[in-house]
Amino acid sequence: KLKHWTIVFPLTLDLASQGGQLIVAGLDSKTWQSSLPADPWQIPAINSSPFTSGLSATFTSLGSVELTWAWVPDMDATAQQITLTIEGQTLAPTMVKRPTVTTTFTMAQANNLFTPGRKFIIQCTPIAPGLWATPVNTTFSIPKSSSMSSISLNNQPLVSSESTMTSLSAQGTNTMEVWWGTPQGAIQTAEFPLQNFKPETTQFAGTSTVSGSGSCLASASVNSTNQQVWWITETGAIDGQVNSGKGWAPPGTGPGEAFPFNKASTASTVNGGSMASLILQYNNGAILFWVDPKGAIGCCRWMASLGWQTVFDALPQGTASASSQLTTLSFGSTAYLFCVSPEGAVVGGSWSDASIGTLGPMSPIVVASAGNAAPGGGIGSFSVSDTVGGNSQEIAVLWTTPKNGIEIAFVYEEPYSFRNFQRPLTAAQSVLGGTGIAVYSNTANQCSVWWIGQYGDLRRTNVDPTKVSSTPTPNWPVFEEVGPGSCRQTRSLIVQKLSGTQFDVFYVNTKGALAGLAYSL
């Protein structure tokens, strides 16, 4: 009786698609002699055309790599196996079934190896019924900024945990200076001449000047002969020093020279307190703002011709969360301030002319309703245009959300109306909670935003403000500037213009020391 046998030969699609023949011969189990070969069986031709389009890889605001492709119509592929090999390590493969066209590898899956400029290989293997196609390899590099240099200090006094750094660049010079509080309560400073990436640090004010846990610092450069730096003491007084062109020294005691806000309980000390400053039109003066213990926005104006004036509330009690940061900007004579309310709203105020003889309370502004912002998160702002529609002003406000994303709102203030619209800049969970953001706008259609990621890395995105309204889903390019495990969880993240061709970003590294990046335009 004739028996029938079935033998399965696995063939990869690349071999099967080449055609070929199968020839079978019998083998006697006793004599080990083979029979005459059977007639050849022709392997059916298999279409070797691509089963999917080329792979597209994107580095996302989450610190992940997202892979996207398209299935070629009328081809038989039903799934695709994807593997990622980095530093000799091949991650566990991911199987994606049709019609899904995307998959993501997270920073955690990559064992924190998604570092700036790191190259890796992505292998995609389409699968047809019973057959595996030829694997297709794609090389991808984690994006990082070009024309960027690291900044480190020759000696590294630590930054206290709740210290908020400040910086300024003296007008007419190519030098900037940074200040921060130390765990011993001292104020430390470092001066950065252009192209000097390893400056020395010096003690600016002695130990116990501020709380060892941290203090908010602020500064203003009115002109080349008037720079001022302030800090919040443990008692809630605001102290500081002045540079009138002859070096830093405490303020004078004469009329208009002494700080009228150097009194206990002037400012909140929660999380080190919050302050911000702005320069008036034509460099006629400066205004210092702070959050007071009852959530009001206190302020005081310094005029070049008069000195310091009276302290008053720019916005009433309950305006700001005790842990809110402040951001300010000016448009000609108009001044703006924004903060986060206790309810998580983004609020602020404006003066149409901040240089008039007597300032009253600011006109209130609501940028985003309650629940939109994280009170202890970052906030920033920049000017977009002062000629929108010919007679209106456009400004942008950015903040961290309760879900640890970054949102942006564009605020238009016209002579007789006020309007704004809001968009996400990053996905939720992109930002490490309780950290700051930094914003720098160098052209009308380019703005950079920095934040600390969930893995302690520093990321940057480039945003075109003119296209945000037509981009409801964030897809701006993201750059990994400093790799995982590099940044400490802190609100202190600042950017400072140094010259027409260079600006610097400063953060606190995991050792608690000041570090930075210098960008060349």
Protein described:
With 521 residues, the protein is mainly β. The strands form 10 sheets. Strands 5, 6, 7, 9, 10 and 11 form a 6-stranded antiparallel beta sheet that branches. The longest helix is centred in the first third of the chain and has 4 residues. This is Fucose-specific lectin. Keywords: Signal.
Distance between the termini: 86 Å
Structural class of the helices, strands and pairings? Answer: mainly beta
Rg, nearest Å: 31 Å
CATH superfamily of the largest domain: Fucose-specific lectin
Give the integer mean of the pLDDT values.
Answer: 89
CATH topology of the largest domain: Neuraminidase
CATH C-level class of the largest domain is Mainly Beta
Low-confidence stretches: 386-391
Number of domains: 2
- What does the overall shape look like? elongated
Keywords: Signal
Protein name: Fucose-specific lectin
Would you spell out the secondary-structure blueprint of this structure?
Blueprint: H1 13-16, E1 21-22, E2 41-42, E3 56-59, E4 65-68, E5 79-86, E6 89-90, E7 94-97, E8 102-105, E9 119-128, E10 131-132, E11 136-141, E12 148-151, E13 166-169, E14 175-181, E15 187-193, E16 201-205, E17 217-223, E18 226-232, E19 238-243, E20 248-249, E21 275-279, E22 285-291, E23 297-303, E24 307-308, E25 312-315, E26 327-331, E27 334-340, E28 346-351, E29 363-368, E30 379-388, E31 392-400, E32 406-414, E33 417-424, E34 437-443, E35 446-452, E36 458-463, E37 478-482, E38 494-499, E39 502-508, E40 514-520
Antiparallel strand pairs: 1-2, 3-4, 4-8, 5-6, 5-7, 5-9, 9-10, 9-11, 12-40, 13-14, 14-15, 15-16, 17-18, 18-19, 19-20, 21-22, 22-23, 23-24, 23-25, 26-27, 27-28, 28-29, 30-31, 31-32, 32-33, 34-35, 35-36, 36-37, 38-39, 39-40
